[in-house]
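Summary: Need help interpreting a holo structure output

Steps to reproduce:
1. Submit the protein chain below together with the SMILES for LXAUTJHC.
2. Request a joint structure prediction with the ligand placed.
3. Inspect the structure token block that comes back.

Expected: a single structure record containing both the chain and the bound molecule.
Actual: see attached output.

Input attached:
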Amino acid sequence: MTAEPHVIVHSDVAALAGATAQRLVDRLAAIQAERGEATVVLTGGSLGINTLKAVAAVGLPAGFDWSKVNVWWGDERFVAKDSPDRNERQAREALLDRLPLDPARVHPFGAAGEYADPDAAAVAYSAALRRAAADEGTSGPVPKLDVLLLGVGPDAHIASLFPEMAGIRTEDRSAVGETDAPKPPPERVSLTLPAINAADEVWLVVGGSDKAGAVGLALAGASPVQVPAAGARGRKRTVWLLDQDAASKLPETLLSPADDGDD
Ligand SMILES: O=C1O[C@H](COP(=O)(O)O)[C@@H](O)[C@H](O)[C@H]1O
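--- attached output ---
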């Protein structure tokens, strides 16, 4: 398996969310069985949250222990902690609040009111990532990130890295603040592309015909500055999990239809 993108197409968004949920639990369980814990980086957005809702309905493999799962986020909207716009709040309501997670292993971005501005929250998140790496005995900028989930916007943004903006060009830190995002809310915090690409596995989960152009450009090898999704690569595996609408502009040669249990 290489980090060359592998594309799997499901029939529609419901099948995509359900299959991604099952794939995620299976993968985290396999990693946990191997090294005692597993780390997931969550995304917000429509499919990110629908996938978490679908996880609630997935059967858990024997021995799987949610309290040994580390949770980080790929990005956050810089709004009040209790705002319904917050990716953290949506994830908690969709799934996390129902799981026996260890609170010490759950790492939300800081919120407006806790930090003066998005960049201050980003500096704190970079520091938290570095501390977690140090706790694992490495001197790197991020801990081991097993599976990192991403949504993709119609403009090809990933996390809160938008085309042509400073965040997508930032390489010297793990998280960055954004104050003028084209998608509301304008103030956001995001992992940078180097931090995203430090994950072992990057899964881009995308549904809908409004995303087909972005998916087509990303998989045709566009420049990440113009098409941020083009730059997302896992160290070991990069998987594009699509519905048929999102895949409609891809050449046949790239597609692996899912049998909804596929790989
Ligand atoms: O605002 C955001 O948007 C993207 C994509 O969301 P979608 O609803 O178009 O799928 C998401 O990946 C990101 O986490 C979120 O903050």
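--- end attachment ---

Reviewer comment: The mean pLDDT is 95. Residues 5-257 form a domain with the Rossmann fold fold (CATH 3.40.50.1360).
Status: needs-info
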